[in-house]
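Supplementary notes for students who missed Thursday's class. We covered one full example, reproduced here. Read the sequence, then the structure, then the short commentary at the end.
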Amino acid sequence: MAHQQDITPSLRRTPLYQLSAELKARFTSFGGWEMPVQFTGITQEHEAVRTTAGMFDISHMGKFTLQGKHLINQLQPLVPSDLNRLKPGEAQYTVLLNPQGGIIDDIIIYYQGEDSTGTQKAVLIVNAATTDKDKAWLLEQLDQNQVEFQDLSQSKVLIAIQGPEAVQHLQSLVQADLQPIKPFGHLQTTLLGKPAFIARTGYTGEDGFEVMLDADQGIELWQRLHQTGVTPCGLGARDTLRLEAAMALYGQDIDDTTTPLEAGLGWLVHLDSKDDFIGREILAQQKAQGVQKRLIGLQMSGRNIARHGYPILSAGEVVGEITSGTLSPTLGYPIALAYVPTQLTKVGEQLEVDIRGKNYPGVVVKRPFYRSQNRLTN
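Structure (token representation):
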């Protein structure tokens, strides 16, 4: 019989792991990777992103490049968003759907345009825990005779630089002018003398960039940014930041049993301008008849933190459960996301959360909980 250590899969480490270890980061297991959860402390790192600049090693994310003569047409049936709207240098946050309208993953498609031969190119960034699942799904759905698919997940580093001072810290290292790049805009440029892909995207609710580059170049970028005063941040601050901005976490707030309409992602569903796509029939039905449940924002009273999995009650009956919850460092009170029946989703609705056997009051509030004054709008 095999020993336990022989059958337990070892966690993968990103090329920046050693740099994080040298900075005395605390690590955690996430999506099959050993990732820094915090460096100096979650609150301090969170504050740095909201007020100055912080950087995250997000190299665990799945990174695919695709190219083909009719690439956009190939991708169109896989998502509810109309990709024909995309111009070169623009990106679409969207979701891969199963036939039941459930979310296989939330992804970003960065359209890079077409070359002189008519070949269209795109970069796809997917979640770490779903990389293998997404890859298998995409390869199953796409015509591999027409689409060249490359998986760069292991070979490339991905660093997020986020916060109101992100531009000035990154600009000195980059050849291109970053200022004109719009939110969800992206380009291929030269960084530290080598090619790099830079996008004005992020998962914090602040302005900032995500940079994809070779491993040795990524190590140098991390060191240079640290030298200029950018705060290293871990997954702990990434979670509190994204929750304040009410950004969904795959596997908690959205999964293959929730549809984009239930998850408050109706703006991704372009039923009027798109032909058939996987899950369309279910979404059209939900649009016509209304959904049974919906994702809400919840503000808790006092310091009572509603955590993932805690039951939600209305009139003494369990009606749903918390998907994500934390004490908001910026706002100073507990916030949460949860699914409840549609009739209980109005702003101002009073609910209760069972926290370790005792019920505490919460109220439905607008999302996002926090909106940055520094963030650009399209």
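Commentary. Residues 215-227 form the longest helix (13 residues). The chain is about 20% helix and 35% strand. If anything here is unclear, bring it to office hours.
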